[in-house]
Amino acid sequence: MAKANEIKYLTAIKNDKPKKKFCRFKKYGIRYVDYKDIEFLKKFVNDQGKLFPRRLTGNSLKFQRKVSDAVKKARQMALLPFVTDLLK
């Protein structure tokens, strides 16, 4: 019989804490989101062209709105595609 301190698990127990998400705009002091900076906007868009939600990016509500407005403006100016297969 196995004793209480000899219990073996099939998978490893996760002991590490997940990284806390942060708003990169507040941390780095970015005040303006430029719609012409396509490489920066691609960080907030997945490979299909959809915006990542706040829970994944860690943006605050204020800057998530600014990012979404900048992406929409870049799409209207044909700098970013509306839909694509492989954006990145």
Task: Report on the architecture of this protein.
The protein is mostly helical and 88 residues long. It has one domain: 30s Ribosomal Protein S18 (Irregular), CATH 4.10.640. 33% of the residues lie in helices and 0% in strands. It has helices at residues 24-28, 38-41, 54-57, 61-76.
Distinctive features:
mainly alpha; 30s Ribosomal Protein S18; elongated
In brief, what are we looking at here?
The protein has one domain: 30s Ribosomal Protein S18 (Irregular), CATH 4.10.640. Helix content is 33%, strand content 0%.
Would you tell me which CATH topology applies?
A: 30s Ribosomal Protein S18
CATH class: Few Secondary Structures
> What profile does the largest beta sheet have?
none
Distance between the termini: 55 Å
Portion of residues within helices: 25-40%
C-alpha geometry? elongated
Q: Over the alpha carbons, how many angstroms does the gyration radius reach?
A: 20 Å
* Total number of distinct structural domains: 1
Write the CATH homologous superfamily. Ribosomal protein S18
Secondary-structure element order, N to C: HHHH
Approximately what portion of the residues adopt beta-strand conformation?
Answer: under 5%
Low-confidence stretches: none
CATH architecture: Irregular
Number of strands: 0
Number of helices: 4
Task: Supply the helix-strand structural class.
Answer: mainly alpha
Blueprint of the fold:
Layout: H1 24-28, H2 38-41, H3 54-57, H4 61-76
